[in-house]
Amino acid sequence: MQVSRLMLVTLRDIPADAEITSHQLLVRGGFIKRVTSGIYAYMPLMWRVLKKITSIVQEELDAKGCLETLLPQLHPAEIWEQSGRWNGYTAGEGIMFHLKDRQGRELGLGPTHEEVITKIAGETLQSYKQLPVTIYQIQTKFRDEIRPRFGLMRSREFIMKDAYSFHSNEEDLKSKYLEMNEAYTNIFKRCGLTTVSVDADSGAIGGAESKEFMVTADAGEDLILISTDNNYAANQEKAVSIACKGKSLPKETSKMIETQGQSTINKLCDKQDLDPTQVVKVILFLALLEDNSYQPILISIRGDQELNEVKLTNEIAIHLKKNVIDLKTLSNEESGVNQLPFGYIGPDLNDSFLEKSNNHWNKSFLRFVDHTAATLESFACGANKINYHKIYTNWQSVGGLPKIVDIRKAVAGDTAQHNKNAKLVEKRGIEIGHIFQLGRKYSKSLNALFTNESGLQEPFWMGCYGIGISRLAQAAIEQNHDKDGIIWPLAIAPFEVVVVIANMKDQNQRALGEEIYEDLLKEKIDVLIDDREERAGVKFKDADLIGIPWKLIAGRDSAEGKIELINRQTKNSKLLPYKEARKELISEISKSR
RNA sequence: CGGGGCGUGGCGCAGUUUGGUAGCGCGGGUGCUUUGGGAGCACUAGGUCGCAGGUUCGAAUCCUGUCGCCCCGACCA
């Protein structure tokens, strides 16, 4: 390909709306163009990158016997209602774009495809003899993100590979899960990325076990915790650990103390000479459930600890056996409950506070206590009366222990659960892959059944496996760039080498450059020739910016048949006779393909 | 959704406080010179100042409304 024909427009200035390096470089290099918030056009260079990633993914999945398909993007509301996700995905902060057709039927633009594929599998796969089956597709997904940002990192329209597996038993699902784990490891390695796989929350998709593949980078939106012995890594949303030990409070007779103006843990500890670990902090939430009812929640946690809302949401769902659509902190503005003594609430806050609440509210609190607070034998807490706390109290005297759960946020510095000598350290990560053992959630709700060996019908065991293709491309830049621009890993670079003719008016340079270009084309090398009537410096800058791994310069020494070979990453340069340069380049490229 | 900021040639910005009919850099075109790390000079094209109302003799500038974009937040009582 000739650069003059490439529709290449690079920018010298940093685009005003790009925050992180990878986003800036994608825009400056002319890889993407924003069309509206969170929606981008992939320009020709970008499309080549995406196609390279796509082929690696296809090769690795095909090698594991997966079947490629293409599923519809418009989904009827009915199947999402059947799986119980229509409300959660469209109401509140739901992320599904949805619309009505001319008949008034509701449709959603697919943010993910469990419903569609499960329905199809249920109709197609009748017998255990047809199982297992793994189906995948690579196509555009739509999610109306609350806040799109960072270019392709969190966009509203993006390319994703999603795979779904169907099994006749759980063991088979587990072995496929391990196989996919292996395929993913291969894929990311081949793409030239450093990734770490972490335990993850299954989120809105649901299901049992799941792992995320993270590209480690400071710009990552996720916080991941890794144990110092490297035997444990988890997303903070999921991470478990042992909290630091608190200072125990002496067991004395419980008493009420006046604490005017001490409505925060810090102020209380300051004035009363307490340590935050000696205080039980109480936070109130209001959960909106899938049946549109509201459940007030009261949680107790040790004063120095932070609450993990994801864990809390999961606990609520488990205890009530209903999906949580929205969870927010309860405030005094909520209708009917303006009597709550915020800042002074204790674990035994009476349910009578809810009497005057809105009709859709459950009239009693669902109460949880985190392990960190449950193990305290003597503590301070709010007295449920403005300007008063209790001190030296215990669980018995505040109405007994609520349900004990793990709802604290694990943080760096905590002790690992599996090894008392290992600590957790934190890193930021960009999630580019996620594998789930879904179990039978969708096959049950969508009534997708097969006939087993005994002739009985049962729902499939399912797994699902995603890779953010477009996000992966940007994450690769976040991990591979320097002050001059992108440094594409060879396997996913839009072109492997660019032949730069330093001066187009020099016939020797031109002849040599064109010759080697033709030559490399015959060798099936992805080669670009910069034939623009530009000064050499411009061409070098552009080649560096768009990150082509190898540069061949037909310049001053062309008359002697010598050409310069430069590696984008190391900047090492060699002046070699044309034949030798060609040989070395071909061998280097075949090594890292 | 809450808070903050910004909309001025393709891109990055100034001009808005104090109203007088739009400017700079990059990029584009032509010519000459230059030719190994984003060249120089000259000429040139390109903008209903997001949009709609209003105030005014006169609006990029003031007022009202509206649309769009970006950032922070939407747990720690």
Give the overall shape, derived from the CA principal axes: globular
Q: How many structural domains are formed by the residues?
A: 3
The CATH topology of the largest domain: BirA Bifunctional Protein, domain 2
CATH domain class of the largest domain = Alpha Beta
Q: Unreliable runs, pLDDT <50, ≥5 residues?
A: none
Helix content: 25-40%
Q: What gap, in angstroms, lies between the N and C termini? A: 20 Å
Radius of gyration: 29 Å
Structural category: alpha+beta
Average pLDDT taken over every residue: 92
Q: Which band does the percent of strand residues land in? A: 25-35%
Strand segment tally: 31
Looking at CATH, the homologous superfamily of the largest domain is Bira Bifunctional Protein, Domain 2
Number of helices: 14
> Biggest β-sheet: count, sense, barrel?
9 strands, mixed
Distinctive features:
single chain, 593 residues, alpha+beta, BirA Bifunctional Protein, domain 2, YbaK protein, Rossmann fold, 3 domains, nine-stranded mixed beta sheet, five-stranded mixed beta sheet, 14 helices, 31 strands, RNA-binding
Explain the layout of strands and helices.
Elements: H1 21-28, E1 32-36, E2 39-42, H2 44-63, E3 67-68, E4 74-76, H3 77-82, H4 86-90, E5 98-100, E6 106-109, H5 114-124, E7 133-142, E8 157-167, H6 170-190, E9 195-199, E10 210-216, E11 222-227, E12 233-235, E13 255-258, H7 265-272, E14 280-289, E15 294-302, H8 309-320, E16 324-329, E17 366-370, H9 371-374, E18 379-385, E19 388-393, E20 403-405, E21 424-439, H10 441-445, E22 449-451, E23 457-459, E24 461-468, H11 469-479, E25 481-482, E26 485-486, E27 497-501, H12 507-522, E28 527-530, H13 536-545, E29 550-554, E30 562-567, E31 573-577, H14 578-592
Parallel strand pairs: 3-7, 15-17, 17-20, 27-28, 27-29
Antiparallel strand pairs: 1-2, 4-6, 5-6, 7-8, 8-24, 9-10, 10-21, 11-12, 11-21, 13-19, 14-15, 14-16, 18-19, 21-24, 22-23, 25-26, 29-30, 30-31
The chain binds one RNA strand of 77 nucleotides through strand 14, strand 16 and helix 13.
